[in-house]
Design brief:
By secondary structure, the protein is of the alpha+beta class. The protein contains four helices and 14 strands. The protein has a single domain, classed as Porin, CATH 2.40.160.20.
């Protein structure tokens, strides 16, 4: 089967300089056979994009009120992030297990309200959210490695946190809490679990994938889809903003 031109061009743009410098793409064995050279594989890096709508309005003390939705609406925003995994343990004929760290960022913007009138003032408010996770990551890569099937299911879970702050035209927003003036900023702790499936793009052009490995050390590139349940509600702290969410994520994984 002929590989799609866009994939060949993408990988070709990366490995053509290696050819210009005379890199060998193959090694000779003692019997004279020629086999592809493969670099060690110990890490994974993900580029991620999620549809994110925080659970702020699920706080029981709100009594059914929805201040977040009233201000910012009900449309999810893109949450852009990255993840780095160390594939510390290889389990023969199963896959890899190791720690990972993820960080992402998004911003919600809307015009503030004029007092209690319910009309917009024209002044802009922004809610910034930076969630992060420290995970254990399990990838079942026996299918492409031993069976020639280009799919890798995986699961992850661990500790999470979310940093947030609200800005207006004067900087960090402030609000009155009784007699005190509080800053509109804080953090929420919690946990998350996720499961996903990756498609190994090497199958679209194996020769280009081997050459990319030879030149850059990138063993494999995957396209992935993932479902995440994140619970960032403060772990019992009553005044924490609920930043967790159920969300779908897509992106690219690079193993090296």
């Amino acid at each position: 089967m002929r590989s799609p031109p866009f994939f060949s061009c993408f990988l070709g743009a990366l490995y053509v300089p290696a050819l210009a410098y005379g890199h060998d793409l193959f090694i000779n064995t003692a019997g004279g056979a020629v086999t592809p050279r493969e670099s060690p594989q110990n890490f994974a890096f993900e580029m991620r994009a999620s549809l994110y709508q925080p659970d702020i309005d699920t706080e029981p003390s709100l009594g059914g009120r929805r201040p977040y939705e009233d201000m910012f609406g009900s449309t999810p925003r893109f949450l852009l992030g990255m993840e780095f995994d160390w594939q510390a343990l290889r389990i023969p004929y199963i896959g890899t297990l190791g720690p990972g760290i993820e960080i992402a960022c998004t911003v919600f913007e809307a015009e503030s309200f004029q007092g209690g009138a319910g009309t917009r003032s024209g002044d802009n408010n922004s809610l910034w959210v930076i969630p992060g996770y420290l995970d254990a990551v399990f990838r079942v890569d026996v299918f492409p490695r031993n069976l020639g099937v280009p799919f890798v299911p995986y699961a992850k879970g661990g500790f999470g946190w979310g940093i947030w702050w609200v800005t207006n035209e004067y900087g960090i927003a402030e609000y009155k809490n009784g007699q005190r003036v509080e800053k509109g900023q804080g953090y929420s702790l919690g946990f998350h679990v996720a499961a996903g499936l990756t498609f190994q793009l090497d199958i679209l052009d194996p020769s280009a994938a081997r050459s990319l490995d030879e030149w850059t050390g990138i063993n494999h590139i995957y396209l992935f889809g993932e479902f995440t349940k994140s619970v960032l509600n403060g772990l019992g702290e009553g005044d924490s903003l609920r930043l967790g969410s159920n969300m779908w994520t897509a992106g690219l994984t690079f193993e090296f």
